[in-house]
């Protein structure tokens, strides 16, 4: 018995939606329909239960293509994803003062960003002033390929890259200390390719629109402008996006190193990490084989869930998160959701909720509870339990995590 619903649009590829029991906004359905009308969609679009409106294409969708890539579907937070590591620590090993733990993490990992104004002359607090040794080691593995990319696209050379490696960013990015169902301590974090990924994504979105300016009016949405295989911009994008995905993965690894080191300054008991570990993208594109053909799979807010593959599906601040194992469902192109998914915009959340609402919703979690993070309040997201139920044929739950410390930019 199939666990998805189908949406048929005249003149478009089929859309298969794992959204039973989960709200889907009308604007997101319209956006899905627009994407499905593109002539190079392979088989069908797979829609995850956390689906919501995005730029050009919906977040929470899996877009298989032949001979073309839509840069805006990949997005500008290229390689954004999750990393989690189980430790040998138990809940009883955590300090009574969780604020000390949060403070140590905030000192160890640059987070947030300093607004750029003409009067401001200091450094961006979300970047390193003097990057530590793990950043140097990681950058040495990335620099050579980046130099080659910059020879082809010189404007990328002046982006914030080296000093962003091992930093969190802002928005929905976070670092957490969590407990699983047995009281074991996990470290979990969410970030991507930071400033350099944004620059790469923005640049190639612009190039795609320039290449199509003679007929972009015929596109359902200008952000569905695409790069065709065999063209120079396509080849340059594939190279640059692949590098940005490496940067994002390494960014999470460096953050995890610094997270572990910061916890050791507070918890003196020796402990091991990476007892179980996952590092997965949820905004990316790569070539995969599906239904007997090599195709490009763009996961815009979706995680690879091949049979036996571990992934991470986080909730929101104050909600549960899950370590999952993929079931390898071919109809979803071996994919699952990347989180709970927003039910409202950030501005709407700020209008609707108060500081008191935020404090109540995150009770028991050591985290920021100020006006700047109200847009991340749990009520701005879908019910994570409903999201998990809707994709029960895509993944099985291995661990259920509940955060006790949350650091946000």
TrEMBL record:
Keywords: GTP-binding, Ligase, Manganese, Metal-binding, Nucleotide-binding, RNA repair. The keyword Lipoprotein does not apply. Its cofactor is Mn(2+). GO terms for biological process: DNA repair; RNA processing; RNA repair. Mn(2+) 1 binds at residues 77, 173. Its EC number is 6.5.1.8. Binds 2 manganese ions per subunit. It catalyses: a 3'-end 3'-phospho-ribonucleotide-RNA + a 5'-end dephospho-ribonucleoside-RNA + GTP = a ribonucleotidyl-ribonucleotide-RNA + GMP + diphosphate; a 3'-end 2',3'-cyclophospho-ribonucleotide-RNA + a 5'-end dephospho-ribonucleoside-RNA + GTP + H2O = a ribonucleotidyl-ribonucleotide-RNA + GMP + diphosphate + H(+). The active site is at residue 338. SUPFAM superfamilies: Hypothetical protein PH1602. Monomer. Belongs to the RtcB family. This is 3'-phosphate/5'-hydroxy nucleic acid ligase. The lineage of its organism: Bacteria, Pseudomonadati, Pseudomonadota, Betaproteobacteria, Burkholderiales.
């Amino acid at each position: 018995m199939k666990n998805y619903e189908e949406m048929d649009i005249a003149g478009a590829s089929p859309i298969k939606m794992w959204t039973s029991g989960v709200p889907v906004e009308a604007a997101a359905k319209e956006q899905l329909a627009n994407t499905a009308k593109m002539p190079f969609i392979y088989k069908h679009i797979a829609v995850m239960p956390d689906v919501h409106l995005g730029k050009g294409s919906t977040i929470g969708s899996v877009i298989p293509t032949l001979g073309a890539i839509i840069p805006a579907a990949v997005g500008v937070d290229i390689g954004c994803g999750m990393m989690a590591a189980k430790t040998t620590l138990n809940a009883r090993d955590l300090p009574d003062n969780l604020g000390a733990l949060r403070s140590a993490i905030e000192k160890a990992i640059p987070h947030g960003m300093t607004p750029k104004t003409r009067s401001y002359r200091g450094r961006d607090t979300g970047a390193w002033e003097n990057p530590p040794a793990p950043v140097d080691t990681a950058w040495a593995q990335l620099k050579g390929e980046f130099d080659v990319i910059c020879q082809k696209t010189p404007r990328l050379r002046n982006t914030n890259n080296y000093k962003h490696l091992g930093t969190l960013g802002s928005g929905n990015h976070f670092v957490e200390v969590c407990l699983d169902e047995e009281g074991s301590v996990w470290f979990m974090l969410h970030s991507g390719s930071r400033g350099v990924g944004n620059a790469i994504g923005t640049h190639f979105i612009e190039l795609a629109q320039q290449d199509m300016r003679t007929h972009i009016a015929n596109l359902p949405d200008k952000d569905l402008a695409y790069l065709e295989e065999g063209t120079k911009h396509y080849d340059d994008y594939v190279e640059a996006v692949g590098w940005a995905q490496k940067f994002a993965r390494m960014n999470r690894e460096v953050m995890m190193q610094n997270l572990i080191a910061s916890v050791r300054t507070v918890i003196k008991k020796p402990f091991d990490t990476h007892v179980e570990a996952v590092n997965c993208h949820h905004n990316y594109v790569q070539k995969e084989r599906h239904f007997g053909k090599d195709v490009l799979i763009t996961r815009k807010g979706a995680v690879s869930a091949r049979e036996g593959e571990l992934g991470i599906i986080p909730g929101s601040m104050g909600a549960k998160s899950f370590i999952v194992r993929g079931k390898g469902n071919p109809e979803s192109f071996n994919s699952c959701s990347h989180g709970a998914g927003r039910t409202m915009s950030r501005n709407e959340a700020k209008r609707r909720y108060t500081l008191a609402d935020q404090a109540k919703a995150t009770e028991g979690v050591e985290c920021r509870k100020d006006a700047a993070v109200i847009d991340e309040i749990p009520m701005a997201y879908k019910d994570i339990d409903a999201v998990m139920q809707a994709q029960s044929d895509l993944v099985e739950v291995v661990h259920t995590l509940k955060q006790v410390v949350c650091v946000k930019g």
